[in-house]
Amino acid sequence: MKFVCLNCETYMTFQKVEKPGEGSLGVFFGCPSCEAKFSMVTNPGETQMVASLGVKLGGRTETAEPFEMTRGTLKEEAQAGAGQMAAYLNEKIQGGQPVAAAAKPSAPDAGGEKTSGGCPFSAMVAEMGLTSGGKPQNGNGTSECTWTADAKEKLERLPSFVKPMVQSSVEAYARKHGYKSITLQVMDDSKSDSPNGIAWTKDAEQRMDNIPDFIRPMARREIERIAKERGLVEITAQVMDEAKEKFMKFM
Amino acid sequence: MTMAAGKDLKTILTKLQYSDDAKVVQQITAQMKQVQARMAGIKQKLVVMSGKGGVGKSMTTVNLALAFARQGAKVGLLDVDLNGPCVPRMMGLHGQSLRMTPEGAQPPVGPLGIKVASMDFFLDDASPVRWKGPMDLSPVWLGLMEMNVIREFLADVVWGELDYLLADLPPGAAADKPPVIAGFIPDLAGAIVVTTPSEVASDVVQKSVTYARDMGIRVLGVVENMSEYRCPSCGAENELFEGNTEAMCEVLDLPLLGRIPFDRKFAKTFDKGQPLLDPEYPTIQKYQDIVGRIQALLDYKKVLAEKL
Q1: Contact at 8 Å (CB) between A4 and B12?
Q2: CB distance from B5 to chain A under 8 Å?
Q3: Pairing between strand A181-182 and A24-30?
Q4: CA nearest A25: which of A3, A51, A2?
Q5: From the candidates A1, A37, A48, A60, which should be mutated to test the interface with B, based on the most B CB atoms within 10 A?
Q6: How many domains does chain A have?
Q7: Are B73 and B236 in contact (CB under 8 A)?
Q8: What is the pTM for the complete model shown?
Q9: Which of B136, B221, B302 sits opposite A85 (nearest CB)?
Q10: Domain containing A204: what range?
């Protein structure tokens, strides 16, 4: 945080920090040109934010002790009690009313303009293309593909928590390849479809059988990454040879 | 105060040279360098995570650490669950503390030479973590504070030279701390995800896997905990939940590293702080198998060089 002396058009310089009261910091700045001085006083929340960073304003004069922040900010049993920030807000901002009651939004002005007085967070959410439910807008969830009865039955047999993911990936595969109908064959083919758009020849696929099954997903991703780096769209036996040569360097 | 005639703030600022008078940026940079320096002596850093609470992350982390140590590796175990630390109790170290020295905080050493750091070492019996200051109204500051406490665990503990450091992350899924914490550890080798075979757990766990991947964290695989129930009397194993972790792994394109039964006799020893260490015990052998797979995954390039 910096302050600018607008008269002298220069940054004010940090001078010192004092503690004017419990939970409060006074940070002093001065203008190097006109000697103007001022102090920024923080409330307990702002003080806490600085403390949470584990830094000393103005820099350290000695090395930090191990776990300095953890040990310095852990509350001892005797100190556990009413919240400092709640008390501060109650006294300074809410005029002595309970914080929760004072924090209630005021009733909308019937004659006011809805667009300019709206909640800034709702506006931000709308800008991000999200609805209040957290789901993208326009995502109606309906599919333009038709599923054959046997394919649908296979999909229905999957556990409920994986079904949506499988359905969307199969439909994405069908769209990519121009299929209007999803059959068992399309489902099977979609399994070997790479999200990178990289195809595997039969030879290359067979060589993957030599790899322990728990390493295969990682191996597949790594080989596809190598292919992508080289601008290739198909993994062939030759790509596998080149990948092997590259991995030999790690032996 | 009047602004100089005809000048707006943007124009004034373009002429000025910024300097970090309060030295905040400098100190934060120094903090991160200290984390990197401390982590430099550790060969492989792994996190154990799950989107779901109560699936046995701590039990899994502790047993993976023991399994690595049983192979002769030098192991550290970091309990990152600040508000519910239980690793020291499971390792029989509850009541001990970090020893502060000029070199840093020396961690207590548990079974098989495992170095352990945990928030538990700062707390009295039955005391929760309570921070000074206005935490009651500010989850934002609380989050910042907790991230810095974790930073101190990484930067200030004298881990020394280790083959493996395992971090037991707190529960949480997308937009929560675990993937962020994992991102905080320099040169993280990967994440191990723990689930139970229940559909509810799998549903939440797959979200955390997706989020971890979005953060660029390499997810090594899934451990299914509480797969079955091992009868303490006869040793027979029966299903505890009806789920399908294999289907989840297939969809997420992740290997299932292993299945661990719910073993009351075994769990009880950790509850009592006297962990069972017999390498011949069946549940322990399952952890040894999982660790073998993790090592192969960490060394997958060598495996590919040999077998491709």
Answers
A1: yes
A2: no
A3: unpaired
A4: A51
A5: A48
A6: 3
A7: no
A8: 0.73
A9: B136
A10: 199-248
